[in-house]
User: Fold this.
Amino acid sequence: MFQELFYQTFYQNRILDYVISVAVFLVALLLVRVFKHIILRRLRVWAERTSTKIDDFMIHTFEKTLFPIFYFGSFYLAVRILVLPPALNKYIDVLGVVVLTFFGVRFLIALVIYVIEMYWARKEGGTVQAGNIRGIFPVIKVVMWGIGIAFLLDNLGFKISTVIAGLGIGGVAVALAAQAVLGDLFSYFAILFDRPFEIGDFIIIDDYMGTIEHVGLKTTRIRSLGGEQLVFSNTDLTNSRVRNYKRMDKRRVVFSLGVTYQTGLEDLKEIPSIIRGIIDNVNSTIFDRAHFASYGDFSLNFEVVYYVMSSDYNKYMDIQQKINIEIMEEFLKRGIEFAYPTQTVFLSKEGVAE
Assistant:
């Protein structure tokens, strides 16, 4: 009796075929659950004990993006045992391609982004400049989804060459209409890979100066010394002469001072050695030269050059202040006077006839 029941046919399939299909689905689903809750859990525990991060990433991404494909695969394998109408078969095939494309593209995007982050971290010596590379991720996603959609359309029977040709013509029109945006985008990639500056660097562009706060796809934002935010297009920055003070190993300092014409000859000869002794006794400095440079309208001018072995502007100003104070102290001890604008008028008294 049961044998006759199993061999009865409904919608071109025996009841036995339906039972086998359900059994295959349940067994496949059980295998996926066992793999997820037993094997994958053990792999996760093992990955946490290792020093590398790639195994943690692969397990997390595998669970997030590929398990939905396994679940759908269990359903797909089960229904393939049955004889279904051509239209329903087609819908299931289309659904399979859509699911495979959607989760496959998500997996590839996660993998590509992870590889870029790891490469950047190694290049930066273990620190990822997230603010620099975050802007490239939307571009990667757009490209990957574009490839995925092209793959999907091709498998659905569309003439992808015609679609691509149409997109190519439209792309040319869009490119012509958005030349400035595309120019800033390519300039962003130039900044990202050539790295003329990074977030936190202090730069000067023409009459503007400040610290880099953000590098975006189209603009770069700089915090000026006055506190306001300056916004530059990336093209402006790549076309400008940028002075990056953050990468300056040492700062060359040139300053002048003037003494009065009444200063004695011996004191004039001693001034360069006095200044040299002062600078040599200041930490983080290297003396270069000090010379009696010129005769001024009201002063005898000396030019001094030295180096501060740091790019920190505040440190430079502290050192210059210390040097100025010590020069003042030494000059006061020796009676050497600094010059300031003065005029001397000489009067002559001619004889007056009586």
User: Anything to note?
Assistant: The first helix runs from residue 2 to 6. DSSP finds eleven helices and ten strands in the chain. The chain has three domains: 7-159, 187-244, 251-334.
